[in-house]
């Protein structure tokens, strides 16, 4: 896959450094120097934000959540993203408040707002429920159990790509359903963030222990 990151922070570093083994990874953002520095550190390429859609089919929105919509403009706007898979990893939870409730947008998730802003892109919510450190684990296994990564979206092809990228990290993908289930994923991540903020280890996760469906007796 050709994967492009907008943003070069903790998540771009953690995910990009893993995916670069199997995919063509490009880093971009508002600072060319910072994009280049991360790209060189993890063995990826870097480019101007306006060039990202030319070198990537899967684009990861990896800026601060408050500027996720600005990030779409930075890489050329909604039209430039037509047909692209847009991975939304953002958690609209403020770290400097004490309530840790996720922000909602008239009841919608940030993922749905992103989809409204880029209607021809295929938005998938994924990778938001674990701290960046967890994505660096090879493999992410907890108490002997593989981490299950929940994801959701409306486009099957984009979801297949997300599932492959989850498997590439050594995690087990679990399709939660349509994109509006991002409301639950953003809320679930807020639980994790609250736990981390109270001093828990960065490797704290909510894991699905038995994801397979058993026949009802
Ligand atoms: N960190 C985690 O453990 C974690 C886990 C799950 C999900 N997430 C989510 O993933 C997203 C990225 O988190 P992160 O920890 O990787 O962030 P980070 O390390 O704080 O990096 C933030 C990135 O956003 C960019 N940025 C900030 N303001 C911008 C603007 N106005 N326009 C363009 N770019 C801007 C920064 O660029 P500059 O350096 O140039 O400001 C930087 O590349 C967040 O939404 C977060 O909720 C994070």
Class from helix and strand fractions = alpha/beta
Ligand catalogue: NADP nicotinamide-adenine-dinucleotide phosphate
Number of domains: 1
The percent range for helix content is 25-40%
- Kindly report the oligomeric state of this protein: single chain
- In what order do the strands lie side by side in the largest sheet? 3-2-1-4-5-6-9-10
CATH C-level class is: Alpha Beta
Largest sheet: 8 strands, mixed
CATH superfamily: NAD(P)-binding Rossmann-like Domain
| Mean pLDDT figure | 95
- Any low-confidence stretches, pLDDT <50, length ≥5? none
* Number of DSSP-assigned strands: 10
The radius of gyration computed from the alpha-carbon positions, rounded to a whole number of angstroms, is 16 Å
Strand content: 15-25%
CATH topology: Rossmann fold
Report a brief summary of the structure.
The protein is α/β, with parallel strands linked by helices and 217 residues long. Helix content is 34%, strand content 18%. It has one domain: Rossmann fold.
Report on the structure:
With 217 residues, the protein is α/β, with parallel strands linked by helices. It has one domain (2-197): 3-Layer(aba) Sandwich (Rossmann fold), CATH 3.40.50.720. 34% of the residues lie in helices and 18% in strands. The protein has eight helices and ten strands. It has helices spanning 10-19, 32-42, 52-55, 68-74, 110-117, 132-135, 156-168, 182-197, and strands spanning 2-6, 24-28, 45-46, 58-61, 85-88, 122-125, 141-142, 145-146, 148-153, 172-177. It has an eight-stranded mixed beta sheet, with helices on both faces. α5 links the parallel β5 and β6 (122-125). The longest helix has 16 residues, at 182-197. The model has no long low-confidence stretch (mean pLDDT 95). It binds NADP nicotinamide-adenine-dinucleotide phosphate. NADP nicotinamide-adenine-dinucleotide phosphate (NAP) binds at residues 7-12, 29-31, 34, 62-65, 67, 70-71, 74, 89-91, 128, 131-132. Residues 7-12, 29-31, 34, 62-65, 67, 70-71, 74, 89-91, 128, 131-132 line the site of NADP nicotinamide-adenine-dinucleotide phosphate.
